[in-house]
Design a protein that fits this description.
263 residues; alpha+beta; 434 Repressor (Amino-terminal Domain); Archaeosine Trna-guanine Transglycosylase, Chain: A, domain 4; 6-stranded mixed beta sheet; 3-stranded antiparallel beta sheet; 11 helices; PUA-like_sf; XRE family transcriptional regulator; Lambda_DNA-bd_dom_sf
């Protein structure tokens, strides 16, 4: 958590247990802020004994911690730290999640507080013409990816960009469940729905131990394909290698198509 520019983190294992006592840490912060328990209790509209109880606890609810710090004019921020930061950063960039990069090996990902992950948005897939046409006819109901955010909720709109030689936004579908399994498990469960040959499947997932199968529902063609030149002019669009999130302007332009799907 971040308070007045200082970062307070859980101490490493084996350090003094007093240093890991969150209640004692809060008491230290309160004293540094020049507040008595009675003054803080008044700000929180609780009894002084309740403040005493908080400062005796070794753990505490996040909501209580937030309110305690807010009473001193501080903002609580909680971050997750990943060991494999390099791979995670690539995933976050591709999925357009908001994060703060410290250096090539460290980044901050907001979990709680004012900095939030962006709301879910329509997803644009780059798909070869032979596959995209099977999606809009309903023959292909599974899209495969080496990486894909599990946080994409069911009901999210999938916009289908056909790669060369078409190079146009040509179809639309609705994302169902996202499955994350080993490539072999994905093949056994979804090969027929993915409409892919085993040789091509193995080539695509070579070197990865996890694969993603994305359910697609209600596939259909757009009334008019939007060619790449028009997409660039209207939406500053550049085709993704795998997928990206549609801009709000693009979502607004295709609102009527999403309404038709929901009906």
């Amino acid at each position: 958590m971040k308070v007045s520019g200082k970062m307070f983190e859980p101490p490493p294992k084996g350090t003094d247990t007093a240093a890991g006592h969150i209640g004692r840490r809060l008491r230290e912060i309160r004293k540094l802020a020049g507040l008595t328990q009675a003054q803080l209790a008044e700000r929180l509209n609780i009894g002084q004994s309740a403040v005493t109880g908080m400062e005796r606890r070794k753990d505490i609810h996040v909501s209580t911690l937030r309110d305690y710090l807010a009473a001193m004019g501080a903002t609580l921020r909680i971050h997750a730290r990943f060991d494999d930061a390099d791979a995670m950063i690539n995933n976050l960039r591709e999925a357009d999640f908001r994060f703060e990069q410290i250096d090539e090996n460290q980044f901050l990902l907001p979990i709680f507080g004012e900095d939030r992950l962006p709301p879910h948005r329509d997803v644009v897939f780059s798909i070869k013409p032979e596959y995209s046409r099977k999606i809009v006819t309903g023959e292909k109901t599974i899209e495969l990816r080496r990486r894909f955010p599990m946080s994409v909720p069911a009901g999210t709109t999938a916009l289908i960009y056909e790669t060369s030689p078409t190079r146009a936004l040509s179809g639309i579908a609705e994302i169902g469940e996202v499955h994350r399994r080993s490539p072999e498990e994905i093949w056994r469960s979804f090969s027929d729905q993915a409409c892919i040959a085993r040789k091509d499947f193995d080539t695509y997932f070579d070197g990865v131990d996890r694969a993603f199968a994305i359910e697609l529902r209600h596939g259909r063609s757009l009334p008019r394909p939007l060619e790449l030149s028009e997409l660039r002019e209207r939406f500053s669009f550049e085709p993704p290698q795998s997928f990206l999130y549609a801009t709000p302007k693009m979502r607004e332009a295709l609102l009527h198509e999403r309404a038709k799907i929901s009906n």
